[in-house]
Structures are given as structure tokens and as C-alpha cells.
Design a protein that fits this description.
Distance between the termini: 48 Å
Helix content: 55-70%
Strand content: under 5%
Oligomer: single chain
Function: May act as an adapter that regulates LRP2 function.
Number of helices: 8
Organism: Mytilus galloprovincialis (Mediterranean mussel)
Main location: cytoplasm
Order of helices and strands: HHHHHHHH
Protein name: LRP2-binding protein
Subcellular location: Cytoplasm
CATH superfamily: Tetratricopeptide repeat domain
């Protein structure tokens, strides 16, 4: 079943961004065939930097996932907190509720870490994420006395 889906997405990736996104997810996780994180990230970056109207519904998710790949160091050559932060900031779109709420939440957590700590930024991003419905950020507010 997954092999058929992957074949379809492979055939339509050049003219359908949704197929390109789904194929990138399958390649990254090795679903329906061999994993190829490097290729998956290349496809996600294509979506993340596209100005096409056809990518607007998946662009922030692609940016979030590229950021996650940099943070974890998979498919990107080397791990980079700076690149992760850059992609998450693109995905979070200054708190826009139509942007990636996951990116807003992860930025709140990122700025709460000891080596990247900036409590003003952590508070801002958790506040934005809470306002946009993030249960994870709401939990952080309840859990931390620092806010």
C-alpha cells in the first residue's frame, strides 16, 4: 500500500507540491521504501522557499520540518541550532495564527534551553502559541514559575 502511494507521489512531484511534500515525508521516514533524508530535506527546502500559491497550505509545515532536521542533524550534513532557529522563525511567522503553531511552541522551548536561553523570547513564543491554541505551550506556562 505505501509503495503504491510513494510511486504516485514520485510521478507527480514535479507538478504537484502536495505530492512533493508527502514524498518528502515518506523519504525522510523510510515509508514505502528506503529512507533518503538528504533528498527529503531537498524537497522540503524547495517548498519552504517557494513563492507559489500552491505551497501556501504546506509551506510552514515544510519550514518547521527543515528546522527539526537541522536541530536533530538528520539529512542536512551537520547539526545546526542556528539553522533550526532560522527555519522555525520562518515557520512561526511572528505569531501569525495561520502559521505553524508547532514552530511557535518549539521556539518557546528552544529559548528556554540552558544553552539558548532568552526568557523574553521564550515568553513571547509561548504566549503566541498559547493564543493560537497550543496545549504544549499552555502546559509550559502552568509548569514553570519563571513566567
Amino acid at each position: 500500500m505505501f509503495e503504491k502511494a510513494r510511486t504516485y507521489f514520485e510521478r507527480s512531484k514535479d507538478f504537484d507540491y502536495q505530492s512533493l511534500y508527502m514524498l518528502s515525508c515518506m523519504l525522510y521516514d523510510g515509508i514505502g521504501g528506503e529512507a533518503d533524508e538528504k533528498c527529503a530535506i531537498e524537497y522540503l527546502k524547495k517548498i519552504a522557499h517557494s513563492d507559489s500559491r500552491q505551497t501556501q497550505h504546506i509551506k510552514r509545515a515544510a519550514q518547521f520540518n527543515v528546522g527539526r532536521a537541522f536541530f536533530e542533524g538528520y539529512g542536512v550534513g551537520r547539526q545546526s541550532d542556528e539553522e533550526a532557529e532560522r527555519y522555525w522563525l520562518m515557520a512561526a511567522d511572528d505569531g501569525n495564527p495561520k502559521a505553524s503553531i508547532l514552530a511557535q511552541t518549539i521556539l518557546g522551548m528552544y529559548y528556554s534551553r540552558a544553552d539558548t536561553q532568552d526568557l523574553k523570547k521564550a515568553f513571547f513564543w509561548h504566549s503566541e502559541a498559547c493564543g493560537n491554541g497550543s496545549i504544549e505551550s499552555q502546559g509550559k506556562f502552568l509548569q514553570n514559575d519563571m513566567f
